[in-house]
């Protein structure tokens, strides 16, 4: 099987799977993605190789990455992300930073983060979608976790979890750097009609 045939088969299988998991009819997915119903049928039957633009529209409408739609691996997967491939989202001149370590899309996106906060630094976050949960573990220093305006002191060795559909922030009010690892579980895209 050629690479193109394998890609076409993978896209067909994954599009059917994610459309079914999201509970979208052909018409519902067509409306959400701005892609014709007949094109979706051709893709799901592996009778066409759509443009990148069409594939991106479908991935966005399903709430998954294009990589997830094109993934040809089958069975249990392990994905290793070397430190050099972690994505630094922000940093400050003082040396604080926030790095996305890894993410997953099983039953809704799941992300693992590493935060490094220098004394006096912090990072705020807007509310996430209802049902989003964050779990964190402080490995060094002391974190001031602010959830919906209320401050919580989280010392090294302590873990915390909270519903993140309200404003929240992470601050280092101490004199030593604070290190923590955090997981964010985001609810899946809602099924049509629910």
Parts with pLDDT < 50 across at least 5 consecutive residues: none
* CA-CA gap between termini: 40 Å
Strand adjacency order, main sheet? 1-2-3-10-5-8
Mean pLDDT: 85
Alpha-beta classification = alpha+beta
What this model shows, in words?
Helices cover 27% and strands 32% of the residues. It is α+β, with helices and mostly antiparallel strands. α2 (26-33) packs across α4. It is elongated and about 60 Å long.
Name its key features:
32% strand, alpha+beta, 10 strands
Topology:
Elements: H1 3-22, H2 26-33, H3 37-44, H4 52-62, H5 66-70, E1 87-91, E2 97-104, E3 110-117, E4 122-125, E5 133-140, E6 142-147, E7 150-155, E8 159-163, E9 168-171, E10 178-185
Antiparallel strand pairs: 1-2, 2-3, 3-10, 4-9, 5-8, 5-10, 6-7, 6-9
Summarize the structure.
The protein has 194 residues and is α+β, with helices and mostly antiparallel strands.
């Amino acid at each position: 099987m050629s690479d193109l045939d394998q890609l076409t088969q993978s896209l067909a299988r994954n599009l059917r799977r994610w459309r079914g998991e999201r509970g979208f009819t052909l018409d519902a997915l067509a409306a959400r993605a701005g892609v014709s119903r007949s094109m979706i049928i051709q893709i799901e039957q592996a009778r066409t190789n759509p443009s990148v633009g069409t594939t991106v529209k479908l991935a966005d409408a399903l709430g998954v990455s294009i990589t997830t739609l094109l993934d040809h691996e089958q069975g249990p997967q392990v994905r290793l992300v070397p430190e050099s491939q972690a994505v630094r989202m922000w940093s400050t001149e003082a040396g604080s930073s926030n790095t996305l370590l890894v993410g997953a899309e099983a039953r809704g996106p799941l992300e693992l983060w590493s935060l490094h906060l220098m004394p006096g630094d912090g990072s705020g976050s807007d509310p996430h979608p209802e049902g989003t949960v964050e779990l964190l573990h402080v490995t060094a220093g002391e974190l001031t976790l602010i959830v919906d305006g209320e401050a919580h002191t989280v010392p090294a060795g302590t873990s915390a979890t909270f519903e993140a559909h309200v404003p929240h922030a992470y601050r280092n009010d101490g004199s030593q750097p604070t290190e923590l690892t955090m997981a964010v579980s985001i609810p899946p895209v809602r099924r049509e009609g629910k």
